[in-house]
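idk why but the lab printer keeps eating my pages so im just putting this in chat instead. protein + TNX:
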Amino acid sequence: MKNLRFLFLIFTACIVAACKQGEPTNLAAGSIIPKPVSITATGKVFELTAGTVIRTTHAWPALVDSLEALTGFTFKLETGSATSGILFELDSAANELGSEGYELTIEPKKIVLRAHHAAGIFYGSQTLLQLIKPASANQKVTIPTGVIKDFPNYAWRGSMLDVSRHFFSVADVKRYIDLISHYKMNVLHLHLTDDQGWRIEIKSWPNLAQHGGTTQVGGGKGGFYTQAHYKEIVAYAAARYVTIVPEIDMPSHINAALAAYGSLNNSDTKFPKDGMYTGPAETRGIVDGKIKPTNLYTGIEVGWSTLSLSKPATLQFVNDVIRELAEITPGPYLHIGGDEAHVTKKEEYIRFINHFSEIVKANGKQMIGWEEIAQAAIDSNSIAQHWASEEHAAEAAAKGARIIMSPSKKVYLDMQYDSTTRIGLHWAAYIEVDESYNWDPATRVKGITRQHILGVEAPLWSETVTNRADIEYLAFPRLIGVAEIGWSPDGRTWDEYRVRLGNHTSHLNRLGVNFYRSPKVDWMD
Ligand code: TNX
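predcted complex ->
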């Protein structure tokens, strides 16, 4: 119910935003992103007015009031089938549309959006939203007629937000969810912990967040999500058909935990030279016998911290954290990190990953880890995320794991576009918009074929990202190209996409996105 209400809110907000421009009559000439599977144009228009009747196959209490308050339009809302107006129809017979597909039929007097599942209604409405172009001078809002049939190529279409290196508020995360879901992405992976900050409340180990969350890269004040905040994010995402995948990065990238509890600290943890935190929060870690907690860390070097199996508290910590996280996560996945464990002995690393995999399974979830987990005894119960090593990624596939494709040279949203980009890193590559679009998950890595691949995910690491404008500047427009790689059928070309992206400018502006105006694209306004 809530989902459908949200859908109408954005739908009508779009109508309100309508202004300028002429009447488009060719549905196929629209600049829909991601590109739909098929579009058949019929060359006429549907005219949307304040008197348009909207019908749904669901009951709809109190909707009219909120819509009228928001828009000033007076839509009539009714249930049952329609001969005119707009009909949103969940059709249990429409098996051919799958769990996320939809069919949008626009005729001069009637629009019918059909789907087998509610997610399809959501995605179809995102398409409709992009089709409502700003109105002509006489204030008509017209939509070109025709039929769109659409469903995704890959099941997993995601982005990752690193809330550890810099902390982002619940409102910032919701905004990100609004944007990725509009482009039909269905996964938000939250990188919740790293050397620089622990961002999720764990009730049985309260100092993790209370102390480990008190700073961030550069020494700012950091922050963390209470479990109530986290549940709020999960629910907000679910209403937009986005699954939250939480990541606790272990056994390395773990200094924030070692700073919170001396009982986890390996007494010989060695800090890199730069960025050691020396402020007052340092004294608040919990001392265990003679082993002191580490200092909090605000630099950006990686791979130097580790959990240790020689510490009796370590497995208790792992069990408690995974249990609490599983309890507040309705989605089927838990991400255990597993990357860049440069100071963990290989044999111990393998024992850790094997243990994580058992504990995650015992808590009813499926384990995801970065591709290095291929070194452990993984099988088809695990999912590996490819980022840098084709050998590890291919080994994971050979062991039966499904693969999420996040090749850092293509889809690391924290990479600078070019050497002049004001924020971002460039260790993997400079990634212009064409580079980030021009690749095919199914042929990228030798040994990984279409059937191994769950889908694509674009990570946004936040060492240099401090606020919402920064997030949007690095993510857009590359993220929407990745969304298209995940959703649209094979046979995409940059030459065709670049024109569509240019024509999409007014829509990005309408969404208020702070996007990078790449010189590779002819932006329309
Ligand atoms: C590599 S990708 C990392 C992260 C950094 C990122 C910066 C991966 C699994 N590890 O710890 O934030 O590079 O681009």
